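Fig. S4 source data, part A: sequence.
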Amino acid sequence: MPYLLIILCLIPAVATAADPWSKRDVALQATYFLFHALDWGQTRQIARAPDRYWEAMNPLLGRHPSHGRVDAYFALSTLAHVAITHYIPSKYRPYWQGVTIGLSGYCVGRNLSIGLGVRW
């Protein structure tokens, strides 16, 4: 029952019409996708070699995530990012995208600093 109540409360938020995307929104989303894909590949490397890398830093993945868990997390978080970006009012989108690009860029940079390359 509590889950039904939560879902019913969220329906108005999803039902609102989203603002159209500007060229800047699309460019920022593409930049986010780039960094997110790089982080995804690096995290897959961590999953393949848990003895070489101490642990993943993402608390949602756990200390030593499986390959499947990494793929599921990044696929779902990519879809969630698109949905959130789509429904955020256009004047706030660059802030959201900027923060998430910065976080993904930080993760990629940190992973590079511990010896992870950029490959799948």
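Fig. S4 source data, part B ends here. The radius of gyration is 17 Å.
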